[in-house]
Amino acid sequence: MQPSESTSHKRLAMGIVEYLDKAVADGLVAGDGAESLEIAKQCIADAFGLDVEDAAQVKELSLKPLSLDKVFDVYTATQAKLGGAKEAPEPAGPSDEDRRRADAFKAEGNNLVIEKEYAGAIDAYTRAIALVGDNAVFYGNRAAAYSQTGEHQKAVDDAKKALEIDPAYSKGYSRLGLAYFGLGSYKEAADAYEKGLELDPANPSMLKSLEHARAKIAESPEGAAAARDVPSAGSSGGAGGLGGGLGGLDLGSLMNNPALMGMAQNMMANGGLERLMSNPAVSQMMNNFRSTGQMPNMSDMLSNPDLMNMAKQFMGGSGGPPPPPSSSSS
């Protein structure tokens, strides 16, 4: 027969009283401490209706031959044998309710963006992120809103966080490109758009944005310098290692040379340019340039007798137009 709840409580209280007697008897507590335990025993007995002078009651409720400390030792040994108390499992992430509320905040933010209420949209997306911090779209949307308010560095940080969560999130690269563009970091913007287009090659918005970023790069001093660059001396490029894009010739100086400009005008006026382009050697060089992008090799040009003969005729003292091309011309 199971003891009643009241009896179980009394047995536990009696076990505590007996343990306090044992603690004093074993010398665990002495002096003022022992006196305090005597008072504690009386208080416990009164609270649970115990009469420690009643032998029949004591016999009925006593834990002897066990004692409360021995019971506790058995309990701890059992727990150790079983591997200890089971720790509470870590939360598995946001609850379904958290995700539902976060989606509602995202929808609110989207509507505010449509109304151009960007500050309110940022607040709504921030609330969504507070509930669910593993959603790339929330960070991507907030990045776009930050760009609209001119807070481009915050937009960069959010876009990077979105891509950290989901590297396949193509819009994250679009947001990152827009943020870098706002900061004037056009090279980084172009890199971001290019990576986004690897995931979404036909995205018209990113294609257009990449064009704008590249145009800005070209307009920059560094871009303009790069556009003017030609292969350096000793390179294996089309200049044949003579230095510069055309064998070390200074194109700027050539264009400012009155004699050469006059010769060019004379060629165009007398049909010389057409005859020059019909020469097989020139035609071959132009085909090579179109297919490889490499400039003609000046060494080859200077060693070609046909070209040298044509050059002498164009620059001859008579100033007249050169003779028609030889029969070998096509």
TrEMBL record:
Which gene holds the coding sequence for this protein?
sgt2
**One Gene Ontology MF term:** molecular adaptor activity
Transmembrane domains' residue ranges: none
Q: What is the lineage of its organism?
A: Eukaryota, Fungi, Fungi incertae sedis, Zoopagomycota, Kickxellomycotina
- Source organism's superkingdom? Eukaryota
Protein name (record) = Small glutamine-rich tetratricopeptide repeat-containing protein 2
Q: Keywords of this protein's UniProt record, alphabetized?
A: Repeat, TPR repeat
Repeat TPR: residue ranges? 136-169, 170-203
Q: Where is this region: Disordered?
A: 219-238
The SGTA homodimerisation domain covers 8-73
Q: Which family does it belong to?
A: Belongs to the SGT family.
